[in-house]
């Protein structure tokens, strides 16, 4: 036997949830923008005070398949982590581009890591030559011109000589 539906009063439809196009917190702003390729939407993450976004990634469509999904706190945190990770990796890559290191043996048979870093400065970059033992303790530190060329054979000779201040022109 089929059951009959009771005549229930029709409830009014709730208003559609407002689209949240921007979300700001912790010194960052996430903004939904139209994808420049015309294929949908993207979310851009911009640090407060910066002119250009740090990260722009595709964004998902809403249920109607034409408007973007609104931003919420969880989405913002996810995008914030991605933007911060991107900055951290870019900084690490920039540092490693100005670094050269070799592991060489000292006269007693221990291993010494010799590192030459260029500390970037807009006006006067500085080269820093360091030597560390196996435990990470610094054995020597000298500022040198950024054009200094560290080579493995030079590092071996420097360690064998007792890590004196290098004579550079």
Widest sheet: strand order?
A: 1-2-3-4
- Beta fraction: 25-35%
Global morphology: elongated
Main sheet, how many strands, which sense, barrel? Answer: 4 strands, antiparallel
Distance between the termini: 102 Å
Radius of gyration: 29 Å
List low-confidence stretches: none
- Helix and strand run: EEEEHEEEEH
Count of helical segments? 2
Rounded mean pLDDT is 89
Total number of strands: 8
What fraction, in percent, of the residue positions are helical? 10-25%
Structural class, judged by helices and strands? alpha+beta
Keywords:
8 strands; four-stranded antiparallel sheet; 169 residues; alpha+beta
Description:
Helix content is 20%, strand content 31%. The chain has 2 helices and 8 strands. The longest helix is centred in the middle third of the chain and has 25 residues, at 73-97. The chain starts with 21 loop residues before the first strand and ends in a 9-residue tail after the last helix.
Secondary structure layout:
Blueprint: E1 22-25, E2 28-34, E3 41-47, E4 55-59, H1 73-97, E5 99-105, E6 111-119, E7 126-132, E8 138-144, H2 152-160
Antiparallel strand pairs: 1-2, 2-3, 3-4, 5-6, 6-7, 7-8
How would you sum up this structure in a few lines?
This protein has helices spanning 73-97, 152-160; strands at residues 22-25, 28-34, 41-47, 55-59, 99-105, 111-119, 126-132, 138-144. The chain is of the alpha+beta class and 169 residues long. Strands 1-2-3-4 form a 4-stranded antiparallel beta sheet, with helices on one face. It has a 4-stranded antiparallel beta sheet with strand order 5-6-7-8.
